[in-house]
Amino acid sequence: YTPSTPSSDAIAAVERLQNLKSADLPIPEEIDGTCFIRNGELVPWTGTMLDVESCICVNDSGTAKRVKLGTIHQIDKATALTLVDCAYDAFDLGRGKWPCTTVAGRIQATQNFLAEMIKVREQVVVSLMWEIGKTRKDSENEFDRTVIYIQETINAVRSRNNSDASFLTAEGHVAQVRRSPLGVVLSMGPFNYPLNETFTTLLPAVIMGNTAVVKLPRHGALCIVPMMKAFAECFPPGVINIFNGRGAETAGPILETGKLSSLAFIGSSGAANRLRVQHPKPSRMRCTLGLDAKNAAIVLKDADLDIAVSQVLSGSLAFNGQRCTAIKIVFVQKEIAAEFVKRLASVVDKMSIGLPWESGVSLCPLPEVNKVKTLQGFVDDAITNGANVMNQNGGLTSETFYFPSVVYPVQSTMRLWTEEQFGPIVPVAPFSLVEDVISYLAESTYGQQVSVFGQDSRVIGPLCDILVNQVCRVNLNGPCKRGPDVFPFTARKDSAEGTLDIESAIRAFSIRTMVAAPINDMNRKIISAVIADRSSQFLNNDILF
């Protein structure tokens, strides 16, 4: 599908993207991603190197070509296995230097890293803009939000230490209960939030005393490179090991070693299922997974359409819809469906096309290879089965750009009904009975979030009671989203396993352990002496400020 009469402004903006010249762009200096981190050292890779290309194309010789941003190593299976060995040895079955370091010591190392991380903010922001097409505002927000998350994690760990400093007594026994690390963690973040969603699992895992192996995402890996030196210098050898490589060739074999105690993975449910079964003893590996989603919006007939349209717009098309939390299908009650679609199509067509660093831009090129063809396939299937593209500019494309399509009416015979498009398409489906939408959600393989737009509390109240048993977050007159980060971020069914807010992440990468004793004079004397002599890192009453 191609639009028959797109606006002249949209045509001009897309033609500009097709004809950018290198000389007119602030192309950043190429990043050298030759080195990976193993056992506290930056190790130059002498094998296969990959060119990292931007989602932004230049046309200097008559053909659009992606801008080269740098190179990144692609280690092999044998090398990947040495990384997990280093992490395993550093943990040393709980006897290593890092798991036995005091909470204060682990906090200090993390703070040292954070100070170095902040110094390269602009480099990371530029990398995010150029490699994955995230606007400057969103790139800066990803960096700043990640810094705040780490700071709040440090505060939460300090607070937990202080609350755990006291002793519990019950039934003639005394105990001190704390949280201890699990072991080796494999952390694998996604391309759409390569910084934030990698660090919001990695740093909580490490600060709790675990050691880690980090596989960089397929796109967005270069944003981590400016921080590699800080990782190597701020943490003891073997605590954090970072690499880039093909998942099937590296991640699978790492799991097959049986040396992992935890898997933190953000990606598809299919990939997660394939990974976890490769562990020889999967019951020994705790999983924290953020997976697929097909979040729905339900627009009731009494909804404030100004609010509904604006919130569906941001909820479905922020960062080109490339978010697990994006609204990926919109159900609108028939009485208002025509007016809602008309208004939504109008505001979508007004979205600004451009380059990530340009002020006011909403729509940027897409990083994934062949993503434009994939999106066209969704729309063509919907049109074949009776839908239409409702906005004038919908489906306008260039080499790596796709203008959002509002597709209506979507029904069960179409791929957009059940498949996650993960991109700038807004499927809209009319409905008569709320029960039909509830059935859709109940039968869905996904279960992350839903947005409800309406004003009648007598309808919304009972609806919430049903929806909270289908998804894990019901948003009232607002978009599906993650955050604030103190709120639990989780899902049901094929959409997640585990919870990722600050407190939950701390719990996810640790386990409650205790030292307990019958209350008698001998044990009083021993415990008092251990505390007074400071002979134990675990058994103490230190308060951190």
Commentary on this structure:
- By secondary structure, this protein is α/β, with parallel strands linked by helices.
- The chain is 38% helix and 21% strand.
- It has 17 helices and 23 strands.
- Strands 15-16-17-14-13-19-20 form a 7-stranded mixed β-sheet, with helices on both faces. A 6-stranded mixed β-sheet has the order 10-9-8-11-12-22, with helices on both faces.
- The termini are far apart.
What distinguishing features does this structure have?
single chain; 545 residues; alpha/beta; 7-stranded mixed sheet; 6-stranded mixed sheet; 17 helices; 21% strand
Strand content: 15-25%
Q: What do the pLDDT scores average to?
A: 98
Low-confidence stretches: none
Summarize the main sheet. Answer: 7 strands, mixed
Q: Name the helicity range.
A: 25-40%
Give the overall silhouette.
globular
